[in-house]
Design brief:
24% helix; alpha+beta; Aminopeptidase; 272 residues; 12 strands
Length: 272
């Protein structure tokens, strides 16, 4: 039976680890919760391991799949995100604007993200990541000197880009402006394909993406939350070992349904 995993990219940081002959759990501790990544060929055993864990923060388990073939009996999905896709057409020179859109200081943006988005589900970037986005000019905004009307964050790789976050505090015009400058930026980078993830409960955002001609590509992210508890079994230990992870990643023969951008590209929603 093949091994399955929900770890598609790897950061050389410390993980908490629990393992059996059939399953390896990697627990990444964050400020708000603990993210659970796994390698397994036994989903019954995987669920038992997760159920038995003792932890003082909520656990978050995400599984990417087109159909709910993998599921837990004792845990129910707390959120469902859809991946959307759009094919871009090159802009003509006459449609491009040379309007300057001021960037946002990473420290200010970091505070806004925690106010506007869900830290449990939306993989909010840390300050260092935002500083890199700032340096790479992957943060766009519509603003005056003292007022931010809208902003967005994106990642870019080759001919593809992910829209990570978009927020609009202003009226329809500010929303149209941020989309316009975004498409101009992507046109300059010669991006052909644009992707994003959206919460199925965020109807305002889904409606916005429909108007922008995004379509559902079939991939879904099922997000499970296991509430914290302080008693029970399930000890785990801290381990830093990139060679162990590299061997496991290369050895996994699971058909990859998404690229590494998923865990640095996050959900997108419009702020009312």
């Amino acid at each position: 039976m093949p091994f399955y995993t929900n770890l598609y990219s790897y950061t050389n940081i410390s993980y908490w680890v629990k393992s059996t002959p059939s399953t390896l759990l990697l627990l990444k501790e964050e400020k708000q919760l603990i993210r659970v990544y796994f390698f397994t060929n036994d989903f019954i055993e995987l669920e038992e391991l997760i159920t038995d864990l003792t932890h003082d923060k909520n656990l978050c388990i995400e599984i990417l799949q087109k159909q709910p073939e993998i599921y837990f009996k004792t845990l129910k999905p707390q959120a469902l995100y859809l991946r959307l896709r759009k094919t871009l057409t090159p802009l003509s020179p006459s449609s491009e604007s040379h309007t300057n859109f001021d960037n946002i200081n990473p420290k200010t943006l970091h505070k806004l993200l925690f106010k506007d988005f869900n830290p449990n589900f939306d993989h909010l970037p840390n300050l260092k990541m935002l500083q890199n986005r700032f340096k790479n000019r992957h943060i766009l905004s519509v603003r005056t000197q003292n007022i931010i009307y809208s902003y967005l964050i994106f990642t870019h790789t080759g001919k593809s880009a992910y829209l990570n976050f978009i927020a609009n505090y202003g009226d329809k015009q500010s929303l149209l402006e941020i989309w316009k400058v975004f498409y101009q930026k992507l046109n300059t980078l010669e991006v052909k394909f644009l992707h994003l993830w959206c919460d199925t409960l965020n109807l305002k955002a889904l409606n916005m993406y429909q108007k922008e001609n995004f379509s559902i590509d079939g991939l879904k992210n099922y997000i499970y939350i296991k509430l914290s508890k302080t008693n029970g079994g399930g000890a785990y230990k801290r381990l830093r070992n990139k060679y162990l992870l590299t061997i496991l990643i290369l050895g996994s023969n699971r058909e990859k349904t998404d690229n590494a951008n998923r865990f640095v590209s996050n959900s997108v929603k419009q702020v009312a």
